[in-house]
């Protein structure tokens, strides 16, 4: 599931599995389909 959040006055979309932020809901949903929470996120 993707959650909308406010950061720096803008709306961002966060992957509930790994916490990664996206500026596009479409990108967040596409990421969510392939999200692998077993491996560490390299962007954190």
UniProtKB/TrEMBL annotation:
Domain of life: Archaea
InterPro entries reported for this sequence: DUF7128, Znf_C2H2_type
Domain C2H2-type: start-end pairs: 13-40
Full protein name: C2H2-type domain-containing protein
């Amino acid at each position: 599931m993707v959650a909308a959040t406010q950061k720096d006055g803008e709306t961002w979309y966060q992957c509930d599995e790994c916490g990664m932020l996206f500026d596009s809901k479409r990108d967040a949903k596409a990421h969510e389909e392939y999200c692998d929470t077993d491996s560490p996120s390299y962007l954190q």
